[in-house]
Each structure stands twice: as structure tokens, then as C-alpha cells.
Hints:
By secondary structure, the protein is an alpha+beta fold.
Amino acid sequence: MKMAKDFGEVFQLSTMTSLLDGVYDGAMSYDEFKMHGDFGIGTFDHLDGEMIGFDNQFYRLRGDGTATPLQSTDMTPFCSLTYFKPQQSKTFEEPLDKAAFEKELQKLVPSSNLFYAFRIDGVFKEVSTRTVAYQEKPVPMTEAVKSQPVFHFKNVAGTIVGFWTPAFAQGIAVSGYHFHFIDKNRQGGGHVMNYVLDHGTVQIDQKTHQSLYTPTTEAFLKANLSRDDLEKEIKVTEG
């Protein structure tokens, strides 16, 4: 049955707390989760790469530096998706580092207590990304990121996509900004750690609600989702 598109929704598969506890088993295939949005970020079964999607095109960004289009059966344990319909945009002509640019983003939105989807197209003086590699065993994510490859892009054209999640939803998703990057040639990228925008355009889509889907996999049902030091763990995994 074809689902009606909900343009105000951020669809959330599983929780960040489950990833922190090592729940990496795929809970939805690409054929299933693409029914919930044409734009988003996430990860894959066994943490085998980072997900990025926009313009209804989704890619897997792996730890070997490659970017490949998704296949029907590719599985994800965690993702955030939406139908991207921006209500506003702004072009920046002067360079801005991460902190300065995100201050500009805050000026463009009415409140930090709402959900937003962001797309940034431009030329970046630099972008630092990380991509967690395939995990054979379900170790805590704070351990998995210790061996993650880090990539440094210089003077590169590309796209950053992601979300702002309010503080009250920390642990369901990642509160604050959570961005992924792919270069213009669709050859590489990953989870964004740092960046300097040279010039580009941001588009912003304000959302009205979040829909949480909880998996029924054995690993999720047995996971410890009550984290003793949630803020510290997320800080470690987000870089």
C-alpha cells in the first residue's frame, strides 16, 4: 500500500541510545525506509558506512572513502528521514567557519525548540568527516568510533544535509546539528565533524513533528536504552 507523504514529519528509525548500546542490526531495507522520505541521514547494518540522501538519491559513504548508490536490500538500524520542502533559503558569499555559520543558521529560524532539515550546497574551504567501519561484533559505539577513518576535504564543492533536533529529543536522535557530507562528484564524504564554507546556499525546512519507529529486533528489545552518561557518550561518538 502506498503511503501518503507527510511533509511536516521527521521520521526516526530507532534511537541514538540504541546505537550507543551497540544495536547495529538492520531493521529496515532501503525499499522500506525510502517510503518515509526523499532526504536524510543514518547508518547501515553493522555500522557499515554513513547514509546521506537528497533529491531522492541515497548513498552509502564507507570507511574506504567510497560513495555508492543504495541497493534495494541495503539495511539500516538507524536513520532520520523527511520529505524536503524548504520554506526559505539564503546565500552566503563570504567564508564562514562552522561556529560562525551555525550562528547564522540560528538567526534564520524562529526557535531552537522545533525540528528543522537543512541542505547546504556550496564550495567548502575544508570539510572533515568520519565514517565508522564495519563492526563484526556489537561493541558500544564509543568503542567503535576509536578506529574510524577520518577524511579531510580541501576546496571541495559538495552538499551537506542533516537536521536540527531540539534538546528535549536528545537520545532519540542527536540534539543540535547532525550533518553528513558528500562531494559534488559523489565519490566520498561522511559524518561531518568540522567545516569552513567558502560560499554557498542553505535551504531550511521547518518541521512540525517527529515520528519514532521502534524496531522489534532481538538486539533492540534487549538493549539498555537508559544511559548513565548520555551527553558524554554522544559527544564522543559525534566527534
